[in-house]
Amino acid sequence: MLKRLLLLLFLSGQAYFFAQNNNVGINTATPDPTAILHLESTTQGLLVPRLSVVERDAIAAPATGLIIYQTDDNQEEIYNGTCWIPSYLKECDDCGLDMNIVQSTYNIDRMTTMTATIPVTITQSSPSGTAIPVNMAVVHTFTEETAVTLSQYNFAGGTTTININVSTNVFENGGTHYVTLFAFCNNTSIAKSIQINVQACDIVNITTNQNNYNLSSAASGNNCIVVNIQDNVGIRSTNATNPAFTTGTIPAGCNIGILNEGYVFGKGGNAPALMGQNAQNGGTAFQLGCNAEIRNKGMIYGGGGAGLTVGAFSNINLGPFSLCIAAGAGGGGGMPDGQGGGSGANTCSLLIGFWTSGNNAGSFYDDNEGAPVNQTLSTPFNVGPVQGAIVITAQGGGGGDFGEPGTGSAQPINFAGSYLEICLNIPFIGTFCAPIPGVASALNAMANAVNNLFNTSAPGQGGYAIQHSAPVTIPDGNYQTFSIRGLVAN
User: Fold this and answer.
1) Apex CA 352: angle with CA 309 and CA 416, to 5°?
2) For 162, phi and psi rounded to 5 degrees?
3) I need a labelling partner for 167 at 20 to 30 A (CA). Which of 140, 221, 362, 370 fits?
């Protein structure tokens, strides 16, 4: 029999060698003495029987230590005397894990989306078929600007699909980031990583004071922009009809982040030249047409509305000069830099009566809005037995502080202090004067009637701190805080 075996080995052309200790070497003349079979090759491997689960389970009374390659799950298995277990497990109740990610790379362009949802299927198995709880954890390379969460962090075993939810914003660093999901079951763990490519945003640093700033002239056309307004840098407007800062012509649907450490002021409204004209509204600080996340560490102030100019004014052109008959006062300018009203008196060569221009507002945040003006003219008279005085006080409206409306006056022309009396010289008694009551109140009533009939003008309204046509992260409202003053509204 041995002769036949040696003949077959010789005829097959294979190098089989038998050592003296009854072990076999293939392609080696010196098989290891501790091995019953020693194989050597640089081009071939050992192929064990390949069986499906059905074929494997049909083996009657498998020997302990029997090895197969199980083709349904593509894994090597060993029979341990109780069950078939994969080669990487030890016991029948050990946990096996598999993780399937359909897509390994995702993109967040921060123009159309700020999020990514990544489905992952996890399968838990054990040789005994026992369902074993699985716990999960996630780590990533994003900064604190991005939230990475799981739709669930554990399940009872078997197969389940979870979602990795990635939500970022414009302040996150652009570039390649990685998210790694870990699953744990008893002493078994598995991990897989996903690549997240985040589109870079334009970075616009404002380091010097600006007037009428238009972001569209500074950005490259990217719909994702981060604006850094540095500490103590001011952005203002030269006219209350223009915003201090605008996104300009950047297309709708853009996403911007604003980190403000300076101050952005809408200009205060100017008071009108004459009574009967509306006062100017305060200007807008930010006018935004993009989705905006605003982190405000500085000041965002809308301009104050201007006060009303009050009184009567008539300009009579006499050719080479003009004659003005007036009694009134200009309204105050709104914060900041709003101009006081009443400049119509500057057109007169000769003024009969009195007219006082309103106060200008200051430039900074010290509550220096244009204060209301009270101008008084007293004219005494004596006609026969009748004497008295007509006292006229013009009370102009005041300018509004940052983001606040200007004011009018409850009694624009006030005759308080006016009086009439009849004085008689009575022999042996002397001069006796009897006051005529109600003169001031009658004149005030007449002045109010005239004012209500002809003056339908309104004080200026407070300006917007933030006027937006797309969502912003600061809730709408009328603010009067240190950091925001004025309206935040659409």
Assistant:
1) 60
2) -115, 165
3) 221
Residue 288 pairs with which residues in a beta bridge? 468
3-state secondary structure of 163: strand
Residue 461 DSSP SS3? coil
pTM for this prediction: 0.78
Which distant-in-sequence residues (6+ apart) come within 8 Å of 296 by Cβ? 258, 260, 474, 483, 484
Q: What is the DSSP string of 382-398?
A: EETTEEEEEEEEEEPPP
DSSP string, 207-262: -S-EESEEGGGTS-S-SEEEEEE-TT-EEE-SSTTS-SEE-TTPPTT-EEEEEE-S
- Length in residues, the chain: 490
- 123 vs 146: CA distance, rounded Å: 28
Distance (Å, rounded) from C-alpha 193 to C-alpha 145?
20
- Characterise 401 by phi-psi region: left (phi > 0), alpha (psi -120 to 50), beta (else): beta
Closest C-alpha to 103, from 164, 152, 149, 185: 164
CB 210 within 8 A of CB 149: no
- CB neighbours (10 Å) of residue 197? 14
Max CA separation in the chain (angstroms): 177
Q: Name, in order, each residue with C-beta under 8 angstroms of 85's C-beta and a sequence gap of 6 or more.
A: 77, 78, 91, 92, 94, 127
Helix (H) or strand (E) holding 8, with range, is: helix 2-12
